[in-house]
Amino acid sequence: FAGVEKYMDTPVKRYSSGMTVRLGFAVAAHLDPDILVVDEVLAVGDAEFQKKAIGKMKDVSTQDGRTILFVSHNMSSVKSLCTRGLLLKNGNIYFDGDIDKTVGKYLGADNDQLNHRQLDITWDLVDFQLFSLEVKAKNKEITAPITRDDILEFVVRYDYRKKMADRLDLIFVVKNDEGIDVLVTNTSYNENELILGEHILKMYIPNRFLNEGVYFVDIYVAENKRRSIKNEKDVVSFRLLPEQREIGTYSGKEIGFIHPTFEWVFETL
Q1: What is the model's pTM?
Q2: Which residues on neighbouring strands pair with residue 175, listed in sequence order?
Q3: Crossing angle of helices 17-29/47-58, nearest 10°?
Q4: CA dist., res. 117 & res. 109, Å (int)
Q5: Tens digits of per-residue pLDDT, 71-119?
């Protein structure tokens, strides 16, 4: 099971750390324990071994009715394997709940925010006020974790009291955690200029478009499609978690700023 049969005559002290962990997991997994404690075993070994290890844990949990305590910093693996999560902080249980909420708590533990921050700001534009911006998963509570399987919903509340220009537009600039601009979108792209009155404006980003990670949103107000008359940096931040993946498949972060799902078509020659 460990895949080290070629090295049966090699002293274990000469094994690499990866080989040692593989062997240790193989032994533990076949001892029929009541509770199997697995600590970052998926960080070692190739894809084939990882798939075997996950399959074995699934069998022990579902078929044998035993408990698997899986310790990992890989949130994709955690979400794929676990149904309940314990978040530890300074050696104590900080949170105990379903796995989605636990992952959200873990990833937002530094500011106690779950993938969003609603921020009220006061602008010095007399006739235009932006009250709030929220980023959430569509059709979910604002406190729910956001995954790549979710459609991203941006919700803006504003009050446009008096005509300031021929047209007024709102611009969103989405940046990653390195401050690099990932995308920009503008109400003028589809001629939806801001209208007078107090309104809620919503914008949607399709699911499985942005890569997983932390993002920040800048807001600009532009007049007559020519110049910005007001901007606010880092108005809101949110964290996008990995999508649900098939057990045994690659569970790391893909490269690139965006990670869309394109259509692939085969044609017979």
Answers
A1: 0.62
A2: 181, 216
A3: 20
A4: 13
A5: 887 776 777 778 899 998 888 999 999 887 787 677 654 444 445 555 5
Q: Is pLDDT of 153 > 60?
A: yes
Task: Give dist(CA 187, CA 168) in Å, integer.
Answer: 9
What is the mean predicted confidence (pLDDT) over 31-40?
81
CA distances to 47, 132, 241, 247 from 54, rounded to whole Å, are 11, 43, 20, 7
Strand pairing partners for 154?
135, 203
The DSSP 8-state label assigned to residue 86 in this structure reads E
Residues 6+ apart with CB under 8 A from 105: 87, 94, 95, 97, 114
Residue 12 burial by CB count (10 A; 0-12/13-18/19+): exposed, middle or buried? Answer: exposed
DSSP result, 131-156: EEEEEEETTS-TTS-EETTSPEEEEE
pLDDT (0 to 100) of residue 93: 93
Token code pair at residue 62: 């579902």
CB 45 within 8 A of CB 18: yes
Beta strands in the chain (DSSP E): 35-39, 67-71, 84-89, 92-98, 128-137, 146-147, 152-160, 168-176, 181-186, 197-205, 213-223, 227-241
pLDDT tens digit sequence for 220-232: 999 999 899 999 8
Q: How many residues does the chain have?
A: 269
Q: Which residues contact 227 (CB under 8 A, 6 or more apart)?
A: none
- Do 221 and 235 form a contact (C-beta atoms < 8 A)? no
State the pLDDT at residue 180.
87
